[in-house]
Amino acid sequence: MYVEEQAPWKANARRFHEIAILASQAGSPRAAPAKNTCSDSAWRQSAIWLAIRVSITHYEFPMIRANCRTRFTAADFDFIVRTLARSQTDQVSLVDLLSDVETRDSILDHPRLVDAILNNCGHLRISSQFYFYVLARHVLQQGGIGDRKLCDYVASLLETFSRASRLQMSDEIDHRAQQYISDMLIALTRATPEQAFLLRAHIGNYSLFISGIFHENTQRRSLRGGPDIEFYEQVGRTNYQLVASHAAARRCELDDVFEGLADRFHDVRIALNQLSDRLLNLDDPAAAGRSSLCL
Q1: What is the pLDDT of residue 11?
Q2: From the CB of residue 57, how many other CB atoms can be counted at a distance below 10 Å?
Q3: Which of 28, 185, 243, 256 counts the most CB atoms within 10 A of its CB?
Q4: According to the model, what pLDDT value does residue 177 have?
Q5: Is the separation of the CB atoms in 72 and 107 below 8 Å?
Q6: How many domains does the chain have?
Q7: Which pLDDT does position 50 carry in this prediction?
Q8: Reduced 3-state DSSP string for the chain
Q9: Per-10-residue mean pLDDT for the chain, 295 residues long?
Q10: Is 101 exposed, middle or buried (0-12, 13-18, 19+ CB in 10 A)?
């Protein structure tokens, strides 16, 4: 299934893995000769901080917001009407109902929308934000998470990070993820409060995405000495909890979302595992009965 982009992406998320490479190469112990450990460590931390500070300056840590529903396109609403309407009269009524926010939210929970997305093997002309909201809402509700704002945030997170990863993850990228988080944690020691907020939010988001969508890769690597799922859960939960009390979170009206993600990180992660395993086809686009996303 192909999901057609209807609007330009607002974040240059493709740069995430390039930043990870830059940060991991910045004085990496595997690349540097072991002559003066203290000097090499200080140089590495400075290089990492420079790389990440440049990334922050150029807005390559996008501020993810719970805004998928506000960015639905005309094609998305047309898809809703065509999927749910049984007659011309229904179509007119649905158009009117969709103009009301609360009614719209209820309509978006209709199971036929999920079925229509998953069972369509052709060109499905909906936006990525609509695609991820409907599927994320579906699995999160099944996991007992009904907060629509939190669902919206998770959908925005998936939309942003999937653009970077192409919903494919090799062992090489999986290894960089571990190094990437370590380098960002090092950078926190020299960050301003505002930079620390962006870094911690991104660490939480990144940990949720890796452990949620690519949990099988993470588990395989943990058997060879890499960090396990519990590592990403702990890192993600801790950083979400810290940013929840930040003034910037309140200004962005995300403090409640971060608190929810900190409290229910495990449950959200399990729901994303279900999304990855049952609804998204990450390996074989031709696999029957599962949707694949081409971005």
Answers
A1: 35
A2: 10
A3: 243
A4: 64
A5: no
A6: 1
A7: 47
A8: CEECCCCCCCCCCCHHHHHHHHHHHCCCCCCCCCCCHHHHHHHHHHHHHHHHHHHHHCCCCCCCCCCCHHHCCHHHHHHHHHHHCCCHHHHHHHHHHHCCHHHHHHHHCCHHHHHHHHCCCCEECCCHHHHHHHHHHHHHHHCCCCCHHHHHHHHHHHHHHHHHHCCCCCHHHHHHHHHHHHHHHHHHHHCCHHHHHHHHHHHHHHHHHHHHHCHHHHHHHHCCCCCCHHHHHHHHHHHHHHHHCCHHHHHCCCHHHHHHHHHCHHHHHHHHHHHHHHHECCCCCCCCCCECCCC
A9: 40 38 36 46 49 46 88 93 83 80 93 92 85 97 97 96 59 58 82 89 93 88 85 96 96 97 98 90 43 44
A10: exposed
Tokens matching residue 75: 């094609």
174 touches 214 (CB < 8 A): yes
pTM (2 d.p.): 0.76
Residue 147: φ, ψ to 5° = -65, 110
Would strands 2-3 and 123-124 be described as parallel, antiparallel, or unpaired?
parallel
Cβ atoms within 10 A of the Cβ of 203, count? 25
Distance of alpha carbon 79 from alpha carbon 77, whole angstroms: 5
32-82 pLDDT tens trace: 344 455 555 554 455 444 444 544 444 455 689 999 999 999 999 999 999
Confidence at residue 186, expressed as pLDDT on a 0 to 100 scale: 82
Enclosing domain of residue 225 = 1-295
84, two tokens: 């749910």
Q: What is the pLDDT of residue 285?
A: 37
